[in-house]
Amino acid sequence: MSVPPRLSPLLQQFDFARVRLTDRLRGPVVDSGNGTDIEVGPLTDDEYFWEPVPACWSVRRRTNGPGARATGLAGAGDWGRDSAPFPHPFPPPFTTIAWRLSHLTELLTLRADHTAGSHTLTRDDFRSSGDAAGAVGALDAAATAWREALTSVDDRALDTVGYSTYPHGSDPDDPFLETVWWVNQELLHHGAEIALLRDLYRSLGARAGQMPIDPSMRSRSRSA
């Protein structure tokens, strides 16, 4: 199926943001934005779980329970993402790379399902990754599924309200083109946040081990 002309620029933007983020997480280089390759190593488990400030929200072993101000660990499986029902804590907790990657992967996975899949998946079905490599691989798979969902739609679907039945947002009340735009801005802004956290971790260098990282997260990541 050919890509509808109105969807084409948004699909190109999605592809650009996806490549920038996955290259930033995997390396060996990432485009600086002007065509210059910048060397970057793969995301490590220590970076994945790094808490640059106290009381971060993160991804944790379910047996250890949620972090500060969280009331539960979202999802299925051995690992879950810190969460709380509405109204959420204010000011919002600072979130780790692990939390942000889990959030991005979940929204891509579920929206792909609610656009071109079974239309049944919820947050209770999603499994967060307990290590960096697994999280990056899961993000890539989720991005592929969402892109395949996008390329399956025709022009009329873009104006269809509720074409995506994703239950954790406004999708059922929005034309699908607005949902596509929203997913792009989620990928762009969370991708930028993750890149900044990688820069901060690298810049701290040897001091990173002296920052307020939950020591139990470090040991858990190695045993995953």
Number of helices: 7
User: What letter string, H or E per element, gives the SSE order?
Assistant: HEEHEEEHHHHH
Determine the oligomeric state from the structure.
single chain
Mean pLDDT: 91
Protein described:
The radius of gyration is 18 Å and the shape is globular. It starts with 7 loop residues before the first helix and ends with a helix. It has helices at residues 8-26, 45-49, 97-116, 132-150, 155-158, 176-204, 215-223, and strands at residues 29-31, 37-39, 59-61, 72-74, 79-83. It has one domain (8-223). With 224 residues, the chain is mostly helical. The strands form two sheets. Strands 3-5-4 form a three-stranded antiparallel sheet. Strands 1-2 form a two-stranded antiparallel sheet.
List the helices and strands and how they pair.
Blueprint: H1 8-26, E1 29-31, E2 37-39, H2 45-49, E3 59-61, E4 72-74, E5 79-83, H3 97-116, H4 132-150, H5 155-158, H6 176-204, H7 215-223
Antiparallel strand pairs: 1-2, 3-5, 4-5
Keywords:
3-stranded antiparallel beta sheet; mainly alpha; 224 residues
Concise structural overview:
The protein is mostly helical and 224 residues long. Helices cover 47% and strands 8% of the residues.
